[in-house]
Amino acid sequence: MIRRDGLLPRLGYGAAGLGGLLLLMEAVPRLGLVDERFLPPASEILATLAAQLGTAELWIALGETLRGWAIGLALAFCAAVVAGVVIGIVPGLRALTSSTVEFLRPIPSVALVPLATLLFGPSLGSTLLLVVYASFWQVLIQVLYGVAAVDSVAFDTARSYRLSAWSRVRHLVWPTALPYVMTGLRLAAAVAFILAVTAELVIGSPGLGAEIQVAQSSGAVPSVYALIVLAGLVGIAVNAAVRLLERRVLAWHPAVRSEVAA
């Protein structure tokens, strides 16, 4: 049975924290501590956001951002799962590729901005390049950890019974690695959204980031803050959706069951 008594206090604390932040953002410019030209009051920011939500342009930009996020995340997730399982189960392949992975993984995705601009210009392709590169490593590393966590005795037993490679992956490797895979997906989803907005902001690809850049260039400070708030809200929604998916997929896992029961 799912207990709700712990959920309501957490939601209450979160709402209180958000309310306190809004009050602070309202008071600071009103009291003259910060010039309103650089930090408009929270009420003005929210009013601007409400007005922009009634325009088709904002929803089109949001759709472009979510499209780049979803396609890039899907490509990175599928490629990383396949690569991670293959590298993890093929003898010697992990040792052979470890130096390459450790070399490529720390490279910041923003360092690829000139390459993305050169190859694709201000288009969806540039966004996908950055999103896929950043998200791929988040999932790959977790998949490698998950495959490494498979019990060696169970793996040798499955091999001695002459189970096919597909059967070993399906019935032994995948259930063990799945919690790690979902952790990688949750991390990658947040990183993918950040990189999608970054690509739009820096390169000019269509989306929320491009709208923020246009608002900043035109001096529409309330619009800049309103779009930033919207990006934050979408990020929260993305994280909540992935966590919900994680709990649904791992409903059988003891850790998730104890978390839900608590």
UniProtKB/TrEMBL annotation:
InterPro entries: MetI-like, MetI-like_sf
Chief localization: membrane
UniProt membrane topology term: Multi-pass membrane protein
GO biological process: cellular response to sulfur starvation; transmembrane transport
Domain of life according to the entry: Bacteria
Gene Ontology cellular component terms for the protein in this record: plasma membrane
Ranges annotated as spanning the membrane: 12-33, 45-62, 68-90, 111-133, 178-203, 223-242
SUPFAM superfamilies: MetI-like
Pfam families from the UniProt entry: BPD_transp_1
Gene3D superfamilies attached to this UniProt entry: MetI-like
Compartments it resides in: Cell membrane
Entry-linked PROSITE patterns: ABC_TM1
Annotated ABC transmembrane type-1 domain residues: 62-246
Keywords: Cell membrane, Membrane, Transmembrane, Transmembrane helix, Transport
Family: Belongs to the binding-protein-dependent transport system permease family.
Stated name of the protein: ABC-type nitrate/sulfonate/bicarbonate transport system permease component
Origin species: Nonomuraea thailandensis
